[in-house]
Amino acid sequence: ADWQDEDGVARLDCTDPDHDSGAIMVGAALDQVVEAEGGHERVYSSNFGCRVDCHAWGARVVTTGAGTLGGIVPIDKQYTQLFSETSAASAIVAGAAAITQSWCKENKGSPLTPAELRSVFSDPDFGTPQANVNGEPIGPMPDLRKILGWKLTWLRIWWVLAKRFGFIGVALGYKLYPGQRLKRGIAEKRN
């Protein structure tokens, strides 16, 4: 099932290109892990549906602002844990996107395209699964250790993109990654 607005229109229908802005759509999850499933449950008020690409914490997120974490201190040194729901989750995913793009630019010569970044963030191989989906999916939680960790090779990202966009499309777009070439099934740096 996809989330519907007050008029009953499924505005987050991933099969409808009229409702795809190209943005990464983010859902919010509770901060507690469901041990049996190894993931987080959706916050009741979070958006959901096949158009929601990924999720992050949407409960008890610590940030700067008027609050009492750290005791009684001047306002410019205060923290709160009341930042929540998709506002908090979107900020976390935006930070993960900035880190991923910075890493790609530094190590591969160029950042991922928006569609490529969305594809990586929505791929279950690069995230923590949602717990208790119950027909209300919010996608995986992006895991920077899996996305940028030592187990990740550029070929693995390339393979995810090939699955998503088709082998020919990715092969033609491979020129977007300067300094890389495919040789015997692994991405190697050009001399």
Walk me through the topology:
Layout: E1 26-34, E2 39-42, E3 54-57, E4 61-69, E5 79-83, H1 85-108, H2 114-121, E6 127-128, E7 141-142, H3 144-148, H4 154-165, H5 167-173, E8 180-183, E9 186-189
Keywords:
single chain; 191 residues; alpha+beta; two-stranded antiparallel ribbon; 29% helix; disordered C terminus
- The total of beta strands comes to 9
Strand composition percent: 15-25%
Mean pLDDT: 77
Structure class: alpha+beta
User: Over the alpha carbons, how many angstroms does the gyration radius reach?
Assistant: 19 Å
Number of helices: 5
**Main sheet characteristics:** 3 strands, mixed
- Please tell me what the overall shape is: globular
Provide an overview of this structure.
It is a single chain. The chain has 191 residues and is of the alpha+beta class. The protein has 5 helices and 9 strands. It has helices spanning 85-108, 114-121, 144-148, 154-165, 167-173, and strands at residues 26-34, 39-42, 54-57, 61-69, 79-83, 127-128, 141-142, 180-183, 186-189. The strands form 4 sheets. Strands 2-1-3 form a 3-stranded mixed beta sheet. The chain has a two-stranded antiparallel ribbon with strand order 4-5. Strands 6-7 form a two-stranded antiparallel ribbon. A hairpin with a 2-residue loop joins strand 8 and strand 9. The longest helix has 24 residues, at 85-108. The termini are far apart. Mean pLDDT is 77; it is low at 168-191.
In short:
By secondary structure, this protein is of the alpha+beta class.
